[in-house]
């Protein structure tokens, strides 16, 4: 149900998304690119890739990088596809973060930007990411952080007025999800963005524990 609502919302927003959020997208994705330290030979999956701005950014530095983007909104993906059409090794697929249409152990790096708070089942999404990640791969997730007052207020407002909004998380809650999905966090931080806004980012690798540890 929530995924249908998100799909409708982003299909409606797709044509204005890049323009409306230009500054936010440019700041967050430049930060993510520097943080993620993606190597030229990595095969990258971008979960909830939106209009392909992160792909565009990565490809300006390395035009042969293999990247796959998935998103639940086909209209956002159509824009991503158009931006990256000259790169044959880049592809986009309509899919939910909780059901990735890829074989086990497919990717070296999985990134996801500004989307975790939309996932109706974040743990299922992380378990899917873990499944398609190669054993020595890493996930790098950036999202809004509810430790910042503005995000707390926005979370309350969006829960009332935006049916597509799911839930913002504190850094502690975010890390608990990663741990519950059997990831080991190797690097994490919170970053203030502008005067009020705050983000969190974490890099994590697949841990050794199986079955899953006790969860949230
Ligand atoms: C704020 S946009 C971020 C797009 C892009 N990552 C960026 O940073 O510009 C959120 C995106 O998440 C996608 N999305 C939300 N829930 C999703 C889900 N469960 N599975 C796949 N994509 C999802 C939306 O369609 C939308 O394109």
TrEMBL record:
Keywords: Methyltransferase, Transferase
Keyword DNA repair belongs to the record: no
All copies of domain Methyltransferase type, residue ranges: 45-141
MF annotations from Gene Ontology: methyltransferase activity
Pfam family, one: Methyltransf_11
Keyword set includes Transport: no
GO terms, biological process: methylation
PANTHER family, per database record: METHYLTRANSFERASE, RHODANESE DOMAIN-CONTAINING PROTEIN
Name of the protein in its database record: Methyltransferase domain-containing protein
